[in-house]
């Protein structure tokens, strides 16, 4: 009977249609549910991964900046003359030698996040600290928990340790510290170290956090650095997470039976590993419900189809059932209605699954600012630009855009008047004022690619963009009145697409550079038709720079000052392009820094923390005043150095070499002249002149040879003998190495009018052909 029913039903067209529709609809619903779940999951991963990675990058930049500033202090201390004097002092003189570095350490340890700065001397186990002064032995210091790291300090160029304060200061009991150590090297040996103790809580309080995510920081040894309290997960479980994510920037992990999205990044300064965990349960709760509903609908459709087939079969076999009932009247059969058509069971499917990450919305201003910084510095490509524009700038139009650059006048002088925290507070206030000022009429995003400026991306909210130049002038007045900050503003030309914003930024920077001549507190618009300042050559060439350097090295401060003032007057008169003026001034300052560094001379106050941006924020009068101050300082320093025994000894060596150029003298003879060893003489000569003794002697000989080639008709072989070369080939090789031409070609290029005594040598002779 069952076989007969199945055969009859499958041969029936209506039954086959119901069966096909049932399984087709159920399969379609199942596929839609699974596909929607997968697409939502992938889109959610993409939307969450980007902001979380960038948030980690922002936090990494915060910690890197703090450690880089402390590391710079440690490096400066490792080479500071007072510290080196203390390191070289005899144990009996340690206390006296420690007085000067102690005052310097106290000055550097004034930042609130720095608890103490110490200089450790390995040789005699003495130490000097900004907090407790000099101690002859480590064990006598109020706090010396670092003595167990001495071997690591000797081996690593940068050591960072987390520890708890164990000293006698009751106010600091139990305080968490991050200790940064830099070795001090003398004559190739590690003789001591600089130790800077940073406040743990203050450092990590600067990190950005989000309520729905967890952040962790691990060091190179895999030890947990942050957080230190109220850990959301056991350390053993976190170790499994570290193993799962390995070096991948993104992974899905499970903790205590729950799914999390893990992102990580690594610091190139400290080597630390920053990890964030975002719980997926709440994010995927709704989509899981939708997926389960789809599967339930699929099962319901199958059930409905089977019911329809059953109901149809009941109607088809009703005559047989009636006969069966007549034959067996006692059998009770349930009644069924007729159903010959299957109605659609598909309802409304779950709606739009286009993902729009709510997690990223809280950090949208920071992401927009980072996007503008990358855009104007050309750090991202076209495809990435368009993708991030669509994600971060909903509600903005395609164009136009304009870049406005706000720069703090005399930035280095302004920063010297405030501690770093006050500087950040004032810049934060300036950023808020800019937003409120432009907010009513413009869509606004700000970025800070450099410390001295604030870049503003503007787009008008309506077709009437207003008078941007006049508005910028009002903004300058507001910042001056409210924050007491003098600023200048450069405005680039409007661009039609966001990808062209870098061009508008370059134009605003060029307009801003005219501050060099026009002074502070002005607004300048870029104009492609205006070329007021030309790339002049006479006023900004290298001649004046070389004259200033020569006068400094000759201890002639008056001449150096005259050249600086003459250059300033010529530059203003000939209106040299501002950017070229900045480059030339930066080159001169770089040369002066090299002179000071190579000679171990103290730097003037203007160059204590010099970068080329310092010159960009000054006008020509201030640049001239700064250069004159630097020249006066360096002249005094070099004049004092002129009386040192090392300088006098080097001058004696030079005089000896100049008077014995024709002799076959070597390094041994030169050192014997001052009754010292070759190694000691070479070291002192290198420190004083920046070149080796051998190279200096060779250059003297070649310069003298050039004079003889130009001013006499002597043969090449005779000239070689007169400048100390016994072999003509050796002389030609040395001359070619320095002058890049042979002596013969040099003589020809100088066009000496007399007939030369040298005649061409035959090819088969054993002497090199000098004319080649």
From TrEMBL:
SMART domains: HTH_ARAC. Residues 651-749 form the HTH araC/xylS-type domain. Residues 744-772 are annotated as: Disordered. Keywords: DNA-binding, Membrane, Transcription, Transcription regulation, Transmembrane, Transmembrane helix. The keyword Oxidoreductase does not apply. Gene3D superfamilies: Homeodomain-like. Residues 745-760 have a biased composition (Basic and acidic residues). The chain crosses the membrane at residues 17-37, 293-312. It comes from the Bacteria. This is AraC family transcriptional regulator.
């Amino acid at each position: 009977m069952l076989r007969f029913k199945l055969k009859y039903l499958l041969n029936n067209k209506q039954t086959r249609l119901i069966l096909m529709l049932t399984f087709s609809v159920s399969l379609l619903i199942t596929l839609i549910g699974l596909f929607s779940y997968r697409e939502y999951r992938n889109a959610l991963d993409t939307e969450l991964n980007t902001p979380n990675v960038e948030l980690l990058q922002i936090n990494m930049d915060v910690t890197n900046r703090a450690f880089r500033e402390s590391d710079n202090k440690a490096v400066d201390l490792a080479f500071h003359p007072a510290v080196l004097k203390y390191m070289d002092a005899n144990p009996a003189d340690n206390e006296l030698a420690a007085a000067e570095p102690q005052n310097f350490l106290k000055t550097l340890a004034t930042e609130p996040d720095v608890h103490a700065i110490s200089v450790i001397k390995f040789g005699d186990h003495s130490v000097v600290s900004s907090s407790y002064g000099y101690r002859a032995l480590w064990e006598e210091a109020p706090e010396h928990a670092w003595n167990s790291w001495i071997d690591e300090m000797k081996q690593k160029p940068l050591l960072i340790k987390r520890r708890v304060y164990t000293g006698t200061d009751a106010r600091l009991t139990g305080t968490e510290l991050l200790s940064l150590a830099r070795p001090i090297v003398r004559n190739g040996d590690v003789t001591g170290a600089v130790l800077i103790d940073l406040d743990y809580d203050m450092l990590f309080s600067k990190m950005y956090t989000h309520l729905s995510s967890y952040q962790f920081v691990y060091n190179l040894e895999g030890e947990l650095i942050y957080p230190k309290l109220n850990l959301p997960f056991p350390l053993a479980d976190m170790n499994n997470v570290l193993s799962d994510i390995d070096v991948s920037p993104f992974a899905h992990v499970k903790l205590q039976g729950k799914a999390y999205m893990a992102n990580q990044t690594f610091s190139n300064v400290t080597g630390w590993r920053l990890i964030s965990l975002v719980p997926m349960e709440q994010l995927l709760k709704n989509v899981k419900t939708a997926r389960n509903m789809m599967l339930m609908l699929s099962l319901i459709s199958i059930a409905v189809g089977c019911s329809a087939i059953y109901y149809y079969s009941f109607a088809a076999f009703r005559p047989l059932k009636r006969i069966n009932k007549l034959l067996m009247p006692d059998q009770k059969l349930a009644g069924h209605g007729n159903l010959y058509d299957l109605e659609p069971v598909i309802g409304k499917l779950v709606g739009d699954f286009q993902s729009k990450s709510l997690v990223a919305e809280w950090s949208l201003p920071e992401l927009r600012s980072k996007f503008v910084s990358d855009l104007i510095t050309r750090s991202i490509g076209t495809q990435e630009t368009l993708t991030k524009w669509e994600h971060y700038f909903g509600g903005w139009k395609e164009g136009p855009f304009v870049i406005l650059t706000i720069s703090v006048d005399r930035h280095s002088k302004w920063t010297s008047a405030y501690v770093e925290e006050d500087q950040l507070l004032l810049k934060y206030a300036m950023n808020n004022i800019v937003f409120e000022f432009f907010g009513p009429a413009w869509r606004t995003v700000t970025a800070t690619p450099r410390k001295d400026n604030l870049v503003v991306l503007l787009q008008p909210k309506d077709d009437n963009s207003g008078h941007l130049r006049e508005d910028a002038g009002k903004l300058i007045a507001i910042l001056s009145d409210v924050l007491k900050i003098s600023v200048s503003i450069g405005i680039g030309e409007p661009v039609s697409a966001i990808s062209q914003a870098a061009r508008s930024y370059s134009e605003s920077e060029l307009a801003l550079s005219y501050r060099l001549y026009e002074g502070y507190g002005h607004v300048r618009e870029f104009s492609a038709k205006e070329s007021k300042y030309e790339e002049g050559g006479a006023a900004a060439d290298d001649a004046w720079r070389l004259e200033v350097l020569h006068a400094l090295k000759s201890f002639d401060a008056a001449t150096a000052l005259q050249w600086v003032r003459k250059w300033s007057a010529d530059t203003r008169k000939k209106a040299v392009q501002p950017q070229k003026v900045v480059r030339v001034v930066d080159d001169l300052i770089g040369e002066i820094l090299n002179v000071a560094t190579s000679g171990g001379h103290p730097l003037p106050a203007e160059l204590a923390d010099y970068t080329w941006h310092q010159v960009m924020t000054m006008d020509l009068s201030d640049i001239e005043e700064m250069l004159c101050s630097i020249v006066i300082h360096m002249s005094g320093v070099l004049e004092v150095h002129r009386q040192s025994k090392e300088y006098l000894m080097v001058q004696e060596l030079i005089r000896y070499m100049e008077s014995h150029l024709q002799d076959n003298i070597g390094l041994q003879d030169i050192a014997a002249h001052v009754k010292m060893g070759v190694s000691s003489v070479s070291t002192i000569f290198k420190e004083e002149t920046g070149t080796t003794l051998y190279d200096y002697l060779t250059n003297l000989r070649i310069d003298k040879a050039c004079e003889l080639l130009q001013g006499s008709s002597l043969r090449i072989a005779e000239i070689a003998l007169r400048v100390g070369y016994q072999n003509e080939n050796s002389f030609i090789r040395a001359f070619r190495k320095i002058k890049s031409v042979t002596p013969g070609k040099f003589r020809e290029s100088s066009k000496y009018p007399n007939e030369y005594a040298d005649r061409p040598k035959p090819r088969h002779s054993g002497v090199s052909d000098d004319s080649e």
